[in-house]
């Protein structure tokens, strides 16, 4: 028996999320852990569910997510983008709604590289006149 599922990849900062959308009851599994266990912050859980709430499909799908790299906020945003792309595979008519909400746009902001002769990207070593 083949499982009907939709897949989407999301990226943000240095995070990559692979999201599998399966028909179910609204259970979210992130890297083998429950959503409440992985994201103790309620705001990050809200960010993850944003595409489903917008499309009025919250509680109709189970999410199986594999995410790597970065921190909690970047991972939540990467999952949100992957979920939005997976929803497009489920129903292509959601595209204009998700696009208007800005959920299909990849956030291009990345960490600025460290420059030679400086402590960091912009922080310089302390200047000494003498």
From TrEMBL:
Annotated stretches, region: Disordered: 107-130
Keyword Metal-binding among UniProt keywords = no
Entry keyword set: Ribonucleoprotein, Ribosomal protein
Ranges annotated as biased composition (Basic residues): 111-130
Q: Which GO terms describe its biological process?
A: translation
Asked whether the keyword Membrane is assigned, the reply is: no
Q: Name one Pfam family in it.
A: Ribosomal_S9
The record's listing under InterPro entries reads: Ribosomal_Su5_D2-typ_SF, Ribosomal_uS9, Ribosomal_uS9_bac/plastid, Ribosomal_uS9_CS, Ribsml_uS5_D2-typ_fold_subgr
Q: Name one GO cellular component term.
A: cytoplasm
Which Gene Ontology terms cover its molecular function? Answer: RNA binding; structural constituent of ribosome
Describe the family membership recorded for this protein in Swiss-Prot or TrEMBL: Belongs to the universal ribosomal protein uS9 family.
Q: What is this protein called?
A: Small ribosomal subunit protein uS9
